[in-house]
Structure formats: structure tokens, C-alpha cells
Request: fold
Amino acid sequence: MQKLCSKFCSLQNFSLLAFFFLVVGNIDILQAQPYSIILGRPTDNSITASVMFDQSAEFYLEYGIQKGDYPFKTNTVSLVKNMPEEIDLVNLMPNLRYYYRMQYRIAGTASFVASPEYNFHTQRSTGNSFTFTIEADEHLYDKKGVKNMYDVTLANQAVDNPDFMLSLGDIFGDDHEPFTITSSELDVLHRNYRPFLGKICHSIPFYVCLGNHEGEMDYYYNMNAPNNLCVWGTQWRKYYFPNPYPNGFYTGNTENEPYGIGNPENYYAWTWGDAMFVVLDVYRDQCDTSAKPGGWAWTLGRPQYNWLKSTLETSTAKFKFVFAHHVRGQGRGGLTNAKFFEWGGYDGTNGTSYNFPNKRPGWEKPIHQLFVDNGVSIFFQGHDHVFAHEVLDNIVYQTLPMAADSTYKIGMLANADAFVSDTLEGTGHLRVNVSSDCAKVDFVRAYLPADTLKGKHQNREIAFSYNVGKCSSTGILTNHKFEKIKLFPNPANDHLMIQSEAEIKITKITLQNALGQNLLSTQNSVLDIQQIPNGIYFIAIESLQGNLIRKIIIQH
Ligand SMILES: [Fe+2]
Reply:
């Protein structure tokens, strides 16, 4: 792609040790380092390192398969300050952890200096266990995202030692002023993100899944091209953050776009161990080019649909994980949207009309049905800023919490009523452990140190867990502790019973309406609802083991 010039602020990279001192000890003793390394596109025999310095410099990487032993090295690369260069490590062996360090010399200095040792893993073989992590909706460009909160979530992911991490979008932005934002401003937004990822992504390859606020949409794409948010955003995103493109290991978008974009690196798939990973872009191709198209106008586009169908149908992986910013692009919820339009095929009042053949002539089946017929295990989405776990046709629809919300409840307050089950407040990331027969998903909460002082919460507490695969005696959904809380009957008439097993210590039960207003509170296991009008409500359960919200219906 066209390399664009950057001329703004410098970046800093912090050693992980110092980083943890900052986050955990809240001590401002960081030793700034003058570079960032962000890994991307790992394969069975290669990986890309994007390297950037805040001064002109030259560097090379040396690497091997044992700690402290680096028999291989790259060519020496010269770079200009604040302008990243990508270098590929090639001819690697699969299913191995590699250790590497950078040797660098700042312009005007005499000798090379060695970085700390970093590491990465090449593609896992089948039968090989591994961990990956997912975060979403960082929103550092607006008031929703708080930088030191994000630092905690990043540090927590580093502790999990994942093979790679994904973000599900609303990362760099910013489409809030779409017609006045400039290329220079987008340059700064993307570049300012590197110091965050640079803290951990020297050893954790990073994948971008695009969100609506990245602004890489049809709506902007053709508007006064090439001088628009979509073109500039794509250029700067690619410039600073290496994402996959089809190369024999990855499949994905094969189109090359004009204006210096080339391959937009926006949707792609790969296999790692016993799992297939499919990352979708739900924004670049719209049926009509309005800012927020309705129902059927949201689309993957035919090329992406065909690729998705072929990708799912030809994969023999035991687990198939699909990622997108959202089921519908805009709107809220998981299952409440999955039935509709291109995703589910239905429209009309309450989704009573199956209209897919008319709206998508020649397309074989809706996206959800593709998932069902091809054994998709979990669909991960962001956008709604709240943890929500739902199941439809044995497919988990998993919505992610924000990564940097220091209030811990932005999404819970705004969007909880769009979900049908297991909705939790909190900030953090998801950790997925994949073994040959089982995938375990944990919601790892992040807390600022000041918010753990009362002892109610701990950073890295596990708020929710479940398994998919043969690890479960009951099949798809298993052992999260909140299954041990029962609410019945539902719908309820005059009384609602709350029953929990002995290991769950409930401290408070609150009945809330759809506006989040508290109507009743009790510590008893029976809630008298005789005076509550018919409708949909939420039961907020606080326990020593964590909090939970469940939806109930009151019908007298
Ligand atoms: Fe968002």
C-alpha cells in the first residue's frame, strides 16, 4: 500500500515489567523505551513484525527456538522516526514457540543495543492445546474508553499467555465527525494506539475485526473519493497494524481497491490447532449507501458470503469460531437480531415472514443457517458493550464487554434489555482455552486497583465460564456457576422463587424495570410480585461469587 508520511507525536513502549508496576502498583516509575513491535499474520512458517521508533534508527531481529539462543537473523532495516516498517520472519517451523529479540541502533549512535527477549508461537497442530483472547470496543478516541482501564485489560491478557488476540472493533475510529475529520487526524488516532498494543503485542499477534466506528463503510467509501474517512481509515489502519490477506495460509478478501488501498485486509480465516477462525467485516459492503441502512440493506456482500459459505463448508476443524462487530451492523442484541434479514432470513412484524429467497435471490441460505449446517461453535460479537451469553440452535452467541470502561456498566445500563439470557456488567476480555475436544470460555474481569480496595472485586476474577465440545457431559453448555441459580416460574404470577445451590451466597435480589429502575429488593428467596404490572422485567442478583441479571416475564 501507499506509505503515508507521519509527523506527529512520538510513541513510547514500556517493558512489561514496568507496565505491571504501573498497573498493579500504580507507581509512575515507567522507563520509556523508544520503539514498539506489533506482531501480526502468524502462519505455520512465518510472522510479520511491524516495528516503529520515535527516532530514526536501524534494526534487525534475531531468533531461535530456545530462550537466549538466536541462530537466525533478518536483514538490517533502516527506518525513519514514527514510520513503521514491516519485516517478515520466514522459513519457520510449525507448532513451535520462537524466541526473539531486536538489535537496534538509534541514528547517530555507535553500537547496537539489544531489546528484551520476546516470543511467539507458530501454527498449532491438531491435538495441541492453546489459548487465545478477545477484546472489543476499546473506544479510546471518545469518553467511553479510559486509558489506564485499558492498560489493566491488556496486562490481564498478557498474563493469559495467548497465542494471539483479536479485537472486535471500535478500536481506532473515529466516525463521530465523518465529514470533517482529516487524514492527519486519522493518522494520529491510529498511531496513538500503538503504545498500548506495543506493551504486549511484541509477543501476542494482533487481529483487527472492523467496527462501525472505524468508518470503513460503503457510505463513506465513494464520498469525494479518495479524500474520505473510509479510504484514509483503511490506509492508516493497514499502515500501522498488519492484518491477514490471502496467502495460502489465510483465505479472505481477494479484491484490490484503488486509492492506494490494495487489499483491504478486512475479512479472513485461518486454522489453528483444532479450531477454525473466521473474521467477518459487516460494514464495507452495503446494499444501499446510507449511514445507517435498515434491515436488508446490511449485508456481507455476495463475495464475502460466498467465501464464508465455502470456508465453513470445507473446514474439518472440530471448533469453528466466527467473529464480527455485530450481527446486524447497527441495532442492539444478539439473538433478538439473529432471526432477521440476511442473518436469519425473516422480516415483517415479529419476524413472521421468511423473505430470504426474495431479498437474496440466488443465495442458498441465511447466515445463521450456514452456521447451523456447518457446526459453528461460537459466534463472537462486540458493539453492545456488555457481556451477554445466549444460545440459539446449539450455537453460542457471545457478546463481549468493553475493554476500557472504568464504570463497568456502560453497556449494562444501555443495552442489557436487548439480550435474552446471561447478561453481566463488567469490563475485561474473554479468554478461550482450546484443546482437542473442548473449548473453555472465561470472562476475565478487569478492575482498576482503586476499585478492588473494598474486597468485593478482584482484578482477573472470572465472572462467567462455559465449555463447548465434548468436555461437557450435557453437550454445548456446561459448568458456569450461574447455572446453579434457578428462577421460577417464568412467566411468574404472584411470587417468583430464587433458588441457588449452597456454594452461591446471594446477598441481594432486586427487581428492575426496562429502564433499570429498582422496584423491589429483598434478601429472601421468594419475591412478592403481586403488585407489579404485567411486563418484562429484570432480576439483578448480587452474590459473593459475582453478579448476574436475568430477564423474567410477569403475567398475572
Ligand atoms: Fe462500540
About this structure: Residues 44-121 form a domain with the Immunoglobulin-like fold (CATH 2.60.40.10). The mean pLDDT is 88. The pocket of fe (ii) ion is lined by residues 137, 139, 170, 383, 385 (CB under 6 Å).
